[in-house]
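User: For a reading group we're discussing how well predicted structures match intuition. Take DNA protection during starvation protein. Before you show the prediction, I'll give you the sequence so everyone sees exactly what went in.
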Amino acid sequence: MADTKPHVVGIEVLKQAGLDVDALIKQLVINSSVEFAAYYYFTLLRAHCVGVEGEGIKYVIEDARMEDLSHFESSIARIYQLGGTLPIDPIDYIKMSGCEFLQLPKKRTDHMEIMKKCLKAEQGAIVNWLKVCKMTEGKDPMTYDIAKDILAEEIEHESWFLELIYGRPSGHMRRKFPGERPHTSKHSTALDM
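Assistant: Thanks. Here is the predicted 3D structure of DNA protection during starvation protein, as structure tokens, for the group to look at:
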């Protein structure tokens, strides 16, 4: 293999369109770390939704959890296509996410606190994916497509937790199966049944 840096037309055209590819890679890596950490923490939070009331909450968290895994996987290929990489150390990667707030509440089975943590995570994801949409709109249709589809699911997730916490109707309809990913299934096939 040659030691020279390859000429990558897929990156060159994005730069010509005015995209700061390095800034986009950095944001995508951060967003992927948030999605990965959310998947992990939602696994813990879901496990602590106990009792009759907890059963309904588990279902909603499971949908969000599996779709966050899809969001993580949807990001990875694009990061590498753009010439980026993921951190080698998983501890650094998790810390990059800033998701420490998702740890279990003091009373580990406090359903309301669990849902508030989930809501906060979804709201942060909305902000993060909107950044990518703004960076790529009109410049990078491939990344924009991924980001807008993830954003659509994150907005749905937010509305689910708003419904559970505040009794605000969300229009939430049950997914056909956990992790259905109505918007992002085309970007991540690892969860296909």
